[in-house]
Model the fold of this input.
Amino acid sequence: GESVGLHLPTLSVQEGDNSIINCAYSNSASDYFIWYKQESGKGPQFIIDIRSNMDKRQGQRVTVLLNKTVKHLSLQIAATQPGDSAVYFCAEMSHQGGKLIFGQGTELSVKP
Amino acid sequence: GAVVSQHPSRVICKSGTSVKIECRSLDFQATTMFWYRQFPKKSLMLMATSNEGSKATYEQGVEKDKFLINHASLTLSTLTVTSAHPEDSSFYICSALGQAAGVLTFGAGSRLTVL
Done:
């Protein structure tokens, strides 16, 4: 079956620390993955993406890791700042299906 | 950059009335638009996929007659919640897939409250 939304887990970190947010996906045919940040009352904001032919991709302060063997995706945020506080969602898409399915989100709280 | 506009951002209506939400791609043409629904503290649930000029493809469990989707042009898709009831209260979000670059952009969402 496809990933469905569940209750949001939370992650609390101290400002300046690194954050790691994990996501498990269910569709083996998914070949494109995206991390989104969503602030309260707003739409999802693109952070970083990765294709299935890669296992790591880096952006500014963010890194996405993909482990296709165990269908696991992670988002690493370096030197976490208060402005990073939000809900983070992973999303998966297959070239065949063409639709973007969201996984379980994680609420990140950054303590000053 | 690609911008998607949703209108209205907030709407309150009485039970039994119908509400239309618009999703517009402002600076690009979108062959495909997606409609999502989100409850508080939950993930985004895909409702339907809308292709310009054709009927929308609804996800399992989504009532076609309840949530009418029209994608009349390459820049506009509408979602109409018909005969709305309090349980339809939710945050509705659209996203648009650019025809050329394949960029997927999300709108800011529309909060529907049915009294």
